[in-house]
């Protein structure tokens, strides 16, 4: 597993949670990308990596698709309710 060389960015608040939840579910980025496509969000591996590293802004429709792909609520993704 490659570790980030740079500290997290400040472009979004969900990147760190996406990584933590995805890993807690035993999901690799490739599988997560496939789930995102099923949820209607087609993004590149680079774009996902930038999102997870908080170097990329996240659109509202992407938040909904990400929560769906992780099988959690949007509120949970935003850290507003316990997992």
UniProtKB/TrEMBL annotation:
Q: Name one GO molecular function term.
A: DNA binding
List, alphabetically, the InterPro entries matched.
Answer: Cro/C1-type_HTH, Lambda_DNA-bd_dom_sf
Q: Which domain of life is it from?
A: Bacteria
Q: Is DNA damage set as a keyword in this record? A: no
HTH cro/C1-type domain span? 18-77
Key words of the record: DNA-binding
- The name on file for this protein is DNA-binding protein
Task: Give the source species.
Answer: Paenibacillus naphthalenovorans
């Amino acid at each position: 597993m490659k570790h980030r060389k740079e500290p997290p960015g400040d472009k979004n608040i969900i990147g760190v949670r996406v990584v933590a939840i995805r890993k807690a579910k035993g999901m690799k980025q490739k599988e997560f990308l496939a789930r995102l496509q099923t949820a209607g969000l087609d993004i590149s591996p680079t774009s996902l990596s930038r999102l997870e590293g908080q170097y990329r802004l996240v659109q509202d429709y992407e938040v909904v698709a990400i929560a769906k792909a992780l099988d959690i609520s949007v509120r949970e993704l935003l850290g507003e309710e316990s997992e």
